[in-house]
Amino acid sequence: MTVTAEAAPVTPRPQRPKPRWFGPLMLRLHFFAGILVGPFILVAALSGALYALTPTLEQAVYAHELHAPETDAPLALAEQITIAETYIAGEATLSAVRPAPEPGDTTRILFAQDGLGSSESRAVFVDPGTGEIRGDLTVYGTSGALPLRTWIDQLHRNLQLGEFGRIYSELAASWLGIVALAGLALWIIRMRKARAKKDFVRPNPKHTGYRRAFGWHTSVGIWVLLGALFLSATGITWSQFAGTNVSNLRASLDWGTPALTTSLDGEADAPADEHAGHHGAASAPTGAANPATFDAVLAIAQRTNVNTGLVEIKPPEAPGSAWVVREIKSSFPTEVDTVAIDGTTMQVVDRVDFADYSLPAKLARWGIDLHMGVMFGLANQIVLFLTAVAIAGMVVLGYVMWWKRRPPRAQRRFGTAPRRGVLRDVPWWGLLAVAAAGVLVALWLPLVGWTVIGFLVVDVAAGLVQGRRAPSPRSP
What is the reported pTM? Predict the structure, then answer.
């Protein structure tokens, strides 16, 4: 009789948990972008916070130029223009007139003059009641920014370095949104695992050291997320390289601002630029304009589609062109209707009404005005200021967290970076998704693509240095 032994039960090997790669990838992206691009975002946020308050600051700093005693019988525009031209004494060419928008305001007579910078005009401020010259200042763009606002604007836009300096603001605007979205992904991942979820929406006063800085960074970040994304998206439209991509996309989809036809032979003009209020060029007419015509074309425009006091009247820029009267009211409700008038026949050549703008064109107009702090007046400016200060604080807190992550008793001045080798844990489909997303972002935001390459070079170099410094394994 043969006895067979029972086979021992086979114990299945425990399956190794799949490595988590998305969170570590977002952490590494958030860390390196925050550390290397943080200074650009910090400067943009602080200068932007200051710029947000400039519409109100202008009213205080330039009160004498902008305001005058109220009068019941203002002088005709022709008289005010003649007074300004007499004051200028032939040194410049009349380019536009902005009548006093409200009683107690001055009329702004704009001149083109040699020696002024791009988009600059010489503005003479006239008391509409007495004809007194209240000021003579250089203004910038079609927003009519006065010297203080212009200086802060250029600091925010290009660090006072001209076109080359615009690279800094494009880097800040492009990376701000990416850093914010990576931070949101990390917030969601950690929020799901945390027991004290309330610590992720408000800082815990009991925490100290690194945890305290982390708590403030996390909770403040989630509250300013939408503001950061808005400022990033609208700021990109002003940028040098990515902004061109935005303009091309809008043109291909017919989302641009309607163009006003000013040519008397019917040829269409180039599409309007919503950013002109921030950097629009001031063009001079080719010949002298009759001051009396300003009153006449304004009256025609008011009977057509101009119904606000904030108006600019421009004489023909060239022979065969029409006069242009346009509303310049950027606060809500938006009033930017425009009309072109033949100065010889006094007939309306063309008109563009804001009500007829496409929805994308309206959103672009509103987004730019919100970004500039003029949409809802002082309330808009305060929200922008607080958001920008919070973003700057987030950058500072990020550096504090990095410094506090220093290994104990180590001879290092800075903290450690998130672990290397994240991409080794990414499945093939994840690698394809990451690569595709990277290519799309690099095409849409060129400076992001170049800086990512820079990040990789720095990361690889740091890895090689660490590998050489690591002690070699001893033989058994």
Answer: 0.86
| Residue 373 contacts residue 53 (beta carbons within 8 Å) | yes
67, two tokens: 């305001």
| Tokens read off for 436 | 């595709």
* 70-156 is classed CATH 2.40.128: no
Q: What pLDDT band is residue 281 in, cutting at 50, 70 and 90?
A: very low
d(CA 315, CA 78): 13
pLDDT band at 472 (very low <50, low <70, confident <90, very high): low
For the chain, give the secondary structure using H, E and C. CCCCCCCCCCCCCCCCCCCCCHHHHHHHHHHHHHHHHHHHHHHHHHHHHHHHCHHHHHHHHCHHHHECCCCCCCCCHHHHHHHHHHHHCCCCEEEEEECCCCCCECEEEEEECCCCCCCEEEEEEECCCCCCEEEEEEEECCCCECHHHHHHHHHHHHCCCHHHHHHHHHHHHHHHHHHHHHHHHHHHHHHHHCCCHHHHCCCCCCCCHHHHHHHHHHHHHHHCHHHHHHHHHHHHCCCCCHHHHHHHHHHHCCCCECCCCCECCCCCCCCECCCHHHHCCCCCCCCCCCHHHHHHHHHHHHHHCCCCCCEEEECCCCCCECEEEEECECCCCCECCEEEECCCCCCEEEEECHHHCCHHHHHHHHHHHHHHCCCCHHHHHHHHHHHHHHHHHHHHHHHHHHHHCCCCCCCCCCCCCCCCCHHHHCCHHHHHHHHHHHHHHHHHCHHHHHHHHHHHHHHHHHHHHHHHHCCCCCCC
Mean pLDDT of the 450-475 span? 68
- pLDDT tens-digit map of 24-66: 888 888 988 888 899 999 999 999 999 999 999 999 999 999 9
Residues 399-425 as b or e (16 or more Cβ within 10 Å = b): bbbbeebeeeeeeeeebeebeeebeee
Question: Strand 323-327 relative to strand 338-341: parallel, antiparallel, unpaired?
Answer: antiparallel
pLDDT digits (tens, 9 = 90+) for 164-191: 999 999 999 999 999 999 999 999 998 8
The string over 251-272, giving b where at least 16 C-beta atoms fall within 10 Å of a residue's C-beta and e elsewhere, is: eeeebbbbebbbebeeeeeeeb
Instruction: For residues 30 and 184, give the distance between their C-alpha atoms in angstroms, rounded to a whole number.
Output: 10
CA-based nearest residue to 311, from 288, 329, 291, 284: 329
CB-CB contact of 43 with 159 (8 Å): yes
Delimit the domains of the chain by residue range. 70-156, 259-372, 423-460
Q: How many of the other CB atoms lie within 10 Å of CB of 333?
A: 7
